[in-house]
Specification:
single chain, alpha/beta, 3-stranded antiparallel sheet, 20% strand, binds magnesium ion
Length: 372
């Protein structure tokens, strides 16, 4: 099981129209895919999303020399070492080594993890609501309507990047076009203080079926989250940027959240990610993964959600939804998963059960150009 080759595929795709959230606009999408191959020909894919020049240099000068010749079955040890250097790369390597082990065992990832509770998982359509156009509200409403026509019944939209008046105008326009059967999550991207958050809660409580209010305040203000959660009838969600279970723990211990949103790319390894899901369950908390930035990592979120014990007495078939990027993102096609009626089927083949579109990797290959 010695690792003999590692291929890297840095990907870059400029967007036809910028879009964004309270943190600013995106002009491009990037991804760094890589394939780890063992001497017996077993292979596994990994993914990291970060600044490509740094990843490229990091892989060439440190990660590849470190991994070559090592035994791929030493998953935890290898990932823990890399985690000391770079959290996100460790998460990507962890995906690749998981796939290699599943292939070695001739099992699907879910079977390797003890079996799946369900053969499909629900998803929600995740929007980046802002664009530089004066007509951004109109564009946002149009995008939401297109996605509803495709059968999505859960969506997430952004606030916090415009004035409260404009954001409210946007939400009201959305409430006008969405039926009561469409649940809406609102993401504030840590933009507000406690009093403004309460003002939003008052508006949202009387408006529409709200799935959750996501990260309205900076996530390090745990006391404010405790106060908010005590008074809000809308579930409070967050945690996408937590880098370890150790960072997640205080949120759970101090009752800051109703829904934990870990990201498989941020937690330094797929095992640590799964640990965070289990820990949430131990505290009786729901889990709806954050998975906007990666395609392979989203697939691992699907596997983990398929294998997750139901929350309380929830029907085994039902499980909390996974984030599905519905914005322009050419990398979505790297993995052939087709959502239907707000759900996505869990691949059951050996390893990750799907093939990465290698032609697409060539098409979007980053040529070293500078991007901002
Ligand atoms: Mg968010």
């Amino acid at each position: 099981m010695n690792i003999t080759r590692i291929e890297t595929y840095p990907l870059y795709a400029p967007l036809t129209q910028p879009y964004g959230d309270a943190n600013g606009y995106k002009n491009y999408r990037t991804s760094f895919m890589f394939r780890i191959i063992t001497e017996s020909g077993l292979e596994g894919w990994g993914e990291v999303v970060d600044w490509l020049p740094t990843l490229d240099k990091g892989f060439r000068e440190r990660i590849i020399p470190f991994l070559l010749g090592r035994d791929a079955t030493n998953h935890l040890k290898l990932v823990n070492t890399i985690k000391k250097w770079n959290q996100r790369i460790a998460a990507g390597v962890s995906m690749a080594l998981t796939e290699i082990l599943a292939r070695k065992a001739q099992l699907s990832v879910c079977d390797l993890w003890g079996g799946s509770y369900r053969n499909a998982v629900p998803i929600y359509a995740s929007f980046q609501s802002y664009s530089p156009s004066d007509e951004w509200i109109k564009s946002s409403v149009q995008l939401v309507q297109e996605v509803m026509a495709e059968g999505y019944n859960k969506i997430k939209v952004k606030i916090g990047g415009k004035t409260e008046k404009e954001d409210l105008q946007h939400l009201r326009a959305l409430f006008d076009v969405t039926e009561d059967t469409v649940g809406m999550a609102i993401d504030g991207n840590e933009s507000y203080d406690l009093s403004t958050t309460f003002q939003w809660i008052k508006i949202l409580e009387s408006s529409h079926p709200i799935l959750w209010f996501e990260e309205p305040m900076p996530m390090n203000q745990i006391n404010d989250y405790q106060l908010l959660r005590m008074k809000s009838t809308i579930p409070i969600a967050g945690g996408e940027n937590k880098k370890s279970v150790k960072e997640v723990l205080p949120l759970l211990q101090q009752g800051a959240l109703d829904i934990l949103q870990p990201d498989p790319m941020h937690l330094g390894g797929i095992e640590e990610y799964r640990h965070s899901l289990q820990l949430a369950r131990t505290f009786g908390i729901k889990v709806s993964p954050h998975s906007f930035d990666g395609i392979l990592s989203r697939l691992y979120a699907i596997f983990a959600q398929a294998c997750l014990v139901p929350w309380s007495k929830m029907n085994e078939e039902d499980i909390e939804p996974i984030e599905w990027d519905v914005m322009e993102n050419p990398f979505n096609r790297l993995i052939p998963l087709q959502p239907s009626a707000g759900k996505v089927r869990v691949p059951t083949g050996i390893g990750i059960g799907v093939s990465i579109d290698v032609e697409l990797l060539q098409k979007y290959s980053w040529k070293g150009e500078i991007y901002h």
